[in-house]
Request: fold
Amino acid sequence: MKSFAFPGNIEPEILAIAAGQVPYMRTEWFSKMTLESEAILLGLLDCSNGRVIPYTASGTAAMDACVSSFVSSRKMPLVINGGTFGARWGNICHYYGLHHEEFPVPFGKNPDLELLADRLKSGKYDVLLMQHHETSSGCLFDLQTISQLCRANNVRLVVDAIGSFLADPFSMDASGIDVAILSSHKGLNLPPGLSFAVLSKTVAEAGNFGSKGFYYDWDEHLRNLSRGQTPFSPATHLFMQLHARLKKIQNDGVPKTIEQVKLKADVFRQNCVERGWTFSADTKSNCLTGVYLPFPVRPLINYLGKHEVYVMPSGPENMIRVTHLGTLDCHEQTMLANEIETWQKNAKQ
Ligand SMILES: *Cc1c(COP(=O)(O)O)cnc(C)c1O
Reply:
């Protein structure tokens, strides 16, 4: 199988962990592993003295948790909406009955920073919700400038970094991020099923969140986390896979991990340029490439899928998304471009 869809091909040693029996988790062994994973994650994120709340659920759960435990106590959230995932922030706020406003961004574009500065200066908003990488379009937003605007206007900053973590540089301390959201099946290159709400030191120390949710309640999770446990049954194998994967990333270092993804992105993009395919995003994340092909892509995706080669669709009918995460190498990126080109030629005949 060749997967250019999330999470990409996974390392065999990591896959092997999930083939074993499931150890009991209300034990010192599990607590120690969970606290060690938390410490490594905080290091990789540059988040000194923060806390990482793990959820046995996909990324949207951690977004939901952040809204029900943190955003819900704020007066007026502003949501940057540049695609599917930005829209999701808005939908979650709406679900909890939170009065919020949106800052629309055209698909594949960066937010207009002057307009955003004006909105934030108005003093109307006290928290900004955004994606670092809007994964539906492949656009990487200018987090550095946006975080400066937030700090200058005393606006708290929540960043969904699911699509950028371990693909693009991301530092919570440097950007003054209050809460970051991560998940297992993107940059961490693990199976889907884990997500994380990462709380800065300031947010974690404040506590008393008074969550509007039950299962995701931050106060309850932090109480359990202090002894390395979760309030409800964790996906034990995924926690074990996470721990093993984090050890490896810590060993390699974040810059090298990102560089490997970037090299593959560069190779694939060069292949696209040579074939005259255009890109969906103005400023691209290394995580994936969104490409417009000169034909509707559904039949291509189905054809590749029959041969266990996976690429992802997006909104526009002639766009595919190709992730550069996972174990497939640079050569495989070129092979994929060749296969698409062959399909294109055959389809024309
Ligand atoms: C994948 C992803 C999510 C999580 O989506 P799930 O369907 O819950 O896995 C959230 N935000 C971004 C930016 C993503 O790329």
Q: What stands out?
A: The first strand starts at residue 2 and ends at 3.
